[in-house]
Amino acid sequence: MTRCRSCGGTLPPRTGQRGRSSVYCSAACRQRAYRSRRDPAAGDAVQELIADIERRARKLAPRLPEAFYADVAELSSSVGRLRRIARVARDAARAGADSPTSRRAGEIVTPAPVTENPPGRPGPEAVPGTGTGPEAGADAGAGAGAGAGEDAAVVAAVNSGDEWAFAGLAEPYRAELQLHCYRMVGSYDDSADLVQETFLRAWRNRGGFQGRSSLRAWLYRIATNACLDFLRRNTRRPQRYEGSAGGAEPPARITWLQPYPDHLLEDAAGDSAAAAPEDAAVSRETVELVFLAAIQHLPPRQRAVLVVRDVLGWPAGETAELLEMSTASANSALARARATLREHLPRHRTQWTAPAAPSRDERVILQRYMDAADRADAAAVAELLRRDALVTMPPGPLWVAGRDAIEAALARTYDPASPAYFGRWKHLPTRANGRPAAAGYVQRPGTAVYRAQVLDVLRIENGMIAEITAFEPHLFPAFGLPLTL
């Protein structure tokens, strides 16, 4: 029996879903935990987490396998969070000796400035790359994006130089910051690296945080600039798939696009219903692959303006300040970004919303899809597809358009007599980017083990599968899925 991590109440049973489950029984419990992680008055976050792990470990009793597995999973989640906090503290400690600020401290003969900077000219602590610039030193005044300023205790903890205090304050924002980075770059792997880079930059430039904005807004500023730097270093342009399929126009080929686990979306959103206005922006963020693919066509700065304005909900002035541009330029970039986005979104999808909970129809279609694939029944799969259904396989070059063409391709891979025969299949249900997904495992001829092969993310419209995006299996662990069955 699984217990709520906040109140200890019994959690409702899951219905056929694999991967991580919810650890709170209600929105109120999730919000209580969400707030306690951000309240420095609640005590030492690291010590409380260690105590929680000790308490859970003592309660482990390997009697009933199902209950024992649930308890171990909860313990593993807490240990994982402690490991991430420790990683931030470790990286901060390593970065301390190498930071530009530390190196300059030994080179400066007169610690106090002997001249004042001209009005409007940044001092040395605000120079991008050496101090903070718009990343950390530009601790803007309060506003819709910046928040109402930060508590003095938080400011003191950030500036104290205590790696553990800093890690305990920054780590709770990891999930939503990674989601923000993912939206900017479209890659789960790169977003994980970028959120770690964000914490390192924040640590190195912690002296620039004065509490004029919230800690959350400050970290978002740093994360946005880290993403822009990444996009400048890595020029990525969507291409077109080659060839033709039944006269269909080749779709955009985005080789770096990766799926995002839904359980991390829950972590990022916290409790959108009961959260404060600054947290509500997270619940409005979009994660659908169709939006992610469309936004990759935008230049980096237009992409940043669109995400900060339309997704995070920051006002034009603060967006312009973040990106070091005038308000007029920011508004112009937003208009161009919206126009480009409309060109690349599917018909009838010029507006986007946060993904809703999976509907019963979606769950039924997903189960039928998995059952048909497990039976190697290409015709049954085809019955679920829209006539103009599309299959893409990033980063690979293959694509198939049209129900008949998809059925023919599946029939070849399902037929043991065909040279293209792949093996026997098993599928597990999961969710990615707010959409139903099927984790496919294949037992190759002559082997006894089903190995992770593909993650099919389904876009279902009007009761039919309109698109299947088939991803490589290396991200299965991020979804809480095994690599073998």
What's the mean pLDDT score? 79
In order across it, which strands form the biggest sheet? 4-3-8-7-6-5
Task: Please provide the count of β strands.
Answer: 8
Shape: globular
- Give helix % range: 40-55%
Low-confidence stretches: 100-138, 271-285
* Main beta sheet: 6 strands, mixed
Tally of individual helices: 18
Please tell me how large the radius of gyration is.
24 Å
Strand content: 5-15%
Q: Whole-Å distance between the termini?
A: 25 Å
Helix-strand category: alpha+beta
The helix/strand series, from N terminus to C terminus, equals HHHHHHHHHEEHHHHHHHHEEHEEEE
In words, what does this structure look like?
38% of the residues are buried. It is globular, with a radius of gyration of 24 Å. The chain is built from 18 helices and 8 strands. It has 485 residues and is of the alpha+beta class. Residues 100-138 and 271-285 have low confidence and may be disordered. Strands 4-3-8-7-6-5 form a 6-stranded mixed β-sheet. A two-stranded antiparallel sheet has the order 1-2. The longest helix is centred in the first third of the chain and has 34 residues, at 65-98. The protein has helices at 27-36, 45-59, 65-98, 100-105, 152-159, 163-170, 174-185, 188-204, 215-233, 262-269, 277-284, 289-295, 300-311, 316-322, 327-344, 360-374, 378-383, 403-414, and strands at residues 239-240, 252-253, 385-392, 399-401, 424-432, 435-443, 451-461, 464-471. A hairpin with a 2-residue loop joins strand 7 and strand 8.
